[in-house]
Amino acid sequence: MAKFKAKKQNIAIDMTPMVDLAFLLITFFMLTVKFRAQEAIQVDIPSSIADTPLPAQNILLISVSSDGRVFFGVDSKHTRLSILEKIKERYGYNFTEKEAHIFSVLAEVGVPFEQLKAYLSLSEPERKAMDKRVSIPTDSTNNQLKQWILFARYSNPQIRIAIRADEKAPYPVIARIIETLKEQKVHRFNLITTLEAQSKS
Amino acid sequence: MAAEVGGDSGAPKKGKKKGKARKPKKRPRIDMTPMVDLGFLLLTFFVLTTTMSTPNTMPVVVPPKITEKDEVEPPKIAEGKVITLLVGRAKVYYYVGVEKPELFQTTFSPKSGIRKVLLDRRQKVAQRYGKADEMIVIIKMLDEAQYKDFVDILDEMAIIQQKKYALVDITPEEKSMIEDYKKSIATRS
């Protein structure tokens, strides 16, 4: 009888431990997950030995793409709306409710002020396409980055400035940004890096 | 398929009574395969969307701009203490002192690159002036440099714990020094 049984029985692997493991890992990742924010530009961050984590709040992020285009972003929705308000006052543009809402959810913007209204009225794919060619002007005659930083610091005096630039970003662009910061008496800022995979020490 | 009764599938043939009697003994087995599938699918999703490495930051402090009305005298420093680094694309030119400096070239290599140069220099400063932390590093970035070079050189400062360093704009004299250096290399080879 035992033999007979063994022949017909199909092999069943006990999956229970595997399920346990899978769900354990799922739980872990679900709890630790922090979804990647929608970033307007792709940035490859260089590595360094710095191991201070970036504070989660009150961050003004200046992003620089590999081809030297400059983007601006702040982390809180409230600050964004307040910045938009200041742009309205300063430049006299009128933004509709919808445009203001779109602006408040954008992590980064890289359009000159003149194009901002047009940019906000576009659809999402159109905005993405536009992100590939625009940049905030930083040259000394038309330094709009300076205005952006000024508005952000007015809106949130505690804001800290961080530069998130691509490894391949040309240095002159970085130099201009540092110069802009110096002009506003910002002498302390952060460069965002990833932790080096243990080779320099 | 979802709840298949495994084990004694051939047993009921022996007799209805016997089979019925045995039923309570059998433990129903649930096929876990779809559950595992689902589990790993979700797992993959979370692994891919999660950002495990939180970005770190490197603090930078730059000297304030000195305007003419500030009336600040630039500090006077013994020239032997100063080493100037001209950082280009993945390479570093450096010279010591101010008067008729001789330019050298090195890399970011951890073993033989700029770090060794700086540590050697620091030793010499320590011998001559007593303290190793008297050394002052002046960093000047060339236009050809990329952001990575900038981070690398600041990183080197952090690694060798060089506290006294300054980021200064490059002068035309230094640019021509580099041109001359490149020419001399070209003629030598």
Structural commentary:
The complex is a heterodimer of chains A (201) and B (189). With 201 residues, chain A is of the alpha/beta class. Chain A has helices at residues 2-8, 16-32, 77-91, 97-105, 113-121, 124-131, 144-155, 171-183, and strands at residues 47-48, 52-53, 59-64, 70-74, 160-165, 188-195. Chain A has one domain. In chain A, helix 3 crosses helix 4 and helix 3 crosses helix 7 (144-155). Chain A is globular. Chain B has 189 residues and is of the alpha/beta class. Chain B has a domain at 78-188: 2-Layer Sandwich (Nucleotidyltransferase, domain 5), CATH 3.30.420. Chain B contains 5 helices and 6 strands. The longest helix of chain B is centred in the N-terminal third of the chain and has 17 residues, at 33-49. The chains are: A alpha/beta (201), B alpha/beta (189). Strand 2 of chain A pairs antiparallel with strand 1 of chain B, so a sheet runs across the interface.
Strand residue percentage of chain A: 5-15%
Q: Based on Cα principal axes, name the global outline of chain A.
A: globular
| Separation of the first and last Cα atoms of chain B | 78 Å
Q: What is the count of helical runs of chain A?
A: 8
SSE topology string of chain B: HHEEEEHEHEH
Assembly context of the chains: heterodimer
The major β-sheet of chain A equals:
5 strands, mixed
Q: What's the number of structural domains of chain A?
A: 1
